[in-house]
Every structure is written in structure tokens, then in C-alpha cells.
Amino acid sequence: MTDPALQRWRLLLGTPGAACLGDQPMDADAVARDAALDWLYGRDEDLRRRGVRTGSGREGGLGPSALTTAGWLDDITRLFPKETVERLQRDAVEQYEIHDVVTDPAVLERIEPNPALLRAVLHTKHLMNPQVLRLARRIVEAVVRQLMDKLAAEVRVAFSGTRTRRPSRLRIARNFDVARTLRANLGRYQPDTGKLAIQTPYFFSRVRRHLQQWQVILLVDQSGSMVDSVIHSAVTAACLWGLPGVRTHLVAFDTSVVDLTRDVDDPVELLMKVQLGGGTDIGRAAAYGAGLIDDPRRAIVALISDFYEGGDPGRLVRTVRGMVEQGSKVLCLAALDSQANPSYDRQLAQRLADQGAHVGAMTPGELASFVAEHVGR
């Protein structure tokens, strides 16, 4: 039997890695996996030049292939674990621009929705006819529902009230008072076992804060590189919508500004309206956001962009300084997504930080906690 570890190396290296197997043949599943990997990565000219994956009788995507995209998707779903399937799908649509992954009805009817496919739909929906667009919407709905469920739980915790030092008889795990419980039960420490026998656990109480009306204004850059932040901004706005003490606005921008607030409660419809790409005029969007503010001292403005300004940087800096000086909380976020690991113009971001803006990146849950902290004061 062929060593599984050697087979994995052979799959990684492609045909040039055959020597690592010696005279041992790959099993049938490994052969099928190799064909599926070669269908995708065999078209990578850089890998071909380096001799990493030279193809198995095909010319790296330059010649015809008997395997269709739908057939390839069926194969990888059968041959690989879910995480690997999602990675292969992401590479297909983002690295190799195989658009029929999300524009072929036969594919869309059977494909399992995931975040990579959602990004692909948003990038390619302008290529879709109405029938395909209806099928693609299923992907948007499924992934948005997953993101909403996750973030809604975090938002509920953030807005459920602050813990006080007052004891509570309501025994809820998240309210467990570790320090007081340890102090009260130290006399029951057992040196021979190294364990502490707890006779009486203690818990905090939670009090609901009196909430006064705050505005939360999300200004999100819809350039192609910001697609993850666009998705999470839509989901965040939907989760904040209707919360006591919060009035939410969502505005998308490139060189123009589009107020999407009326669709905030339907993030699927909102995302289907977003047009990714185009130039960027961040200063114009910031000025629009500043114009929405009713009570500056009860406004949180989150400007979400990579800060590669195509307009006038000076206008952006002046607008941010004006909002800060009038008492608004201004967040300049280079990313609002699950990773919060952005690429952005650090020089312009530093100029905005110098004006008193909070500059960085956040996950949606962190933004919800920031909002809850200020709304509850």
C-alpha cells in the first residue's frame, strides 16, 4: 500500500513529484484528486514555469478539457473535505477567474454556499441574466443568514447590560464572579489534590442601561478590494437596525455616494444593489456622512475604506477633523470583517489619526461592542 504521506507530497508537487513515490502507484482516489487539482492549478503559468505542476496531458488551460466546471465541482465535493473544497472554489473564482462557478445555472443549482462564493457573486452579478441572478441570490441569502446568526448573538451580549458588583441569585455562566467565588472558598483548598472545592458560587447582576438615542453612520468603500467589508457592513447595519437607542445609516461610495439606509433591514437586497469597483472619493463620502449628523455628541461615524484616496485628501482630513471637534466619535476602519487584517494607505490613515479619529480595523462584533459601550453611557 502506498504511503499516504508520500501521496500527499505527490498531490502537492504534481507530475514532477512522481519520484517521491518510487515505483509505488497512487490509489484510485489519489489519482482522481490529482486530476481535480490539475484541472485548476494546471492553468497556472507560474507553476508551470517553475515545474511545480506541469499538467497531466493538458496544456494548463490553453487547450480543451473534457471536464466541465460542474463536473469538477462534483469531483472535489466527493474527493476533498469541506474546508479544502471551499479553498479550491475560492481559488477558482478569485485567482483564475473561472466565472461559470457562479454564472452557470447547472453549477448554481448544486453548489454549497460559502463566503468565497458570496464574494464571487458580488463581483460577477453584472454578468448574470435574470435566471442566473435568481439562483445566485440563494448563495447570498444562505451566507448572509449564517453571518447574521453569528453577529446577532454578539450584538445581544453587547447590548444586554453591564455587569455590576451587586450579587445576583440568577446563576448564568457569563455572570460568574470568579474573583469573589475564589476568595470565599479558599478555606476549602485541598493541597493533596491541588483542587478547590466550591461550596458557594457567586454571580454578578446585570442592569439594563438607560439608552438615549445615538446615530451610527457606516460609510463603506465599495471598491473591489473592500468586498469583505461591504458584506460585513451590510450585516452589521442589519443587526444594529431597530436596537433601542440606535439609529443606523449605511452609505456606500466610490466616486459617487449612495445612501442605502432604507434597505438596511434587508441585507440580501442591499448587497444585490451594491456595485463593486470604480474610483474612490473618500472625502466626498465623509462630507455626506457629516451632513447626516443631528446631535454631534451622540454620533458614531465609521468610515470603512483602504484610504487610497482618489479625490482630495485634504478635504477628507478637514472633514474628519470637523466631526471630531464637534464631539462625534469617528472610526476610520481599514477593514470591517472577520479577519480585521487590512492593507491600506498608512500615511493618510496617520493623518486622520492625528485629527483625533480612531484608526484601525475591527470585526463586526468589536464594532457592536464599541457602539454598545458608548450608547449605554
UniProtKB/TrEMBL annotation:
One Pfam family it belongs to: VWA_CoxE
InterPro entries, A to Z: LolB, Uncharacterised_CoxE, VWF_A, vWFA_dom_sf
Domain VWFA intervals: 213-372
Gene3D superfamilies hit by this protein: von Willebrand factor, type A domain
Protein name according to UniProt: VWFA domain-containing protein
Organism: Catellatospora methionotrophica
